[in-house]
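We emphasize that the prediction below concerns an isolated chain of 278 residues; any contacts that depend on oligomerization or on bound cofactors are therefore not represented. The input was used exactly as deposited, without trimming of termini.
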Amino acid sequence: MTTDIRQAIDPRTARTFDTAQLRDAFLIETLFSPDAVNLTYTHLDRLVVGGVMPVAGSVELGQVKATGTDAFLDRRELTVVNVGGAGAVTAGGERFELGHRDMLYVGRGAKPLVFESADAGQPSKFYLLSAPAHHTYPSRLIRIADAKRLDLGAQVTSNERSIFQFVHPDVMESCQLVVGMTVLAPGSVWNTMPCHVHDRRSEAYLYFDLDPAQRVFHFMGEPSETRHMVVANEQAILSPGWSIHSGAGTSNYTFVWAMAGDNVDYRDVDAVDMGDLR
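Result of the prediction step, given as a token string:
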């Protein structure tokens, strides 16, 4: 298991970063490695972002030194998103089977955490999102077919998309995590534009189901000081509360968005007028 520690970056410092520094601070390039757990512990609302890809056998997520607890979920909650082949997660003695794009919420205190793939030839890719938790809510599997769906955008503005809300106040209770998925329709490439910021919580984006030859240009920074990073398939972005978070791809794609912080109200955002972007 590897754990990368990322410090919080203030907007004044971020303005001075070149491309390599931006990527080092905000881009997670490698999430999925065979039979390994790759974690990034960020001081942005103490989010942990990671990936597990079991191939030869099951993989257990044990103690993570950065959390300072005996077991990973002693004081945390977790959402697991399967972006690969079918597999299963065992949490607190319960076994949950996840298909492609299914999500599992795991409540505080569940242990052990064990991940396995149904077929080593098409391994599961479990995307992990965790935040500190003050209460224990029951673990719950939410399949893509059972998520709350919102169809937004239009082909004429290149942003026809479907939003699937999983760990969300309209669907279930959690402590901090709000997690969903956005699927871009063929021919559409823009996400979250017009953009916004929400200084009350941080966010992480995972881009996936993107052709390996294609890329997403992810835009971040203060509205008056925007920057971009070029993102490949199955790479993730850490987004501070002061930053916009928007992207355009060279083809359509899917992304998982996850937030943690003071407010779980999905609509609590500060919109940015297109004319104010620089």
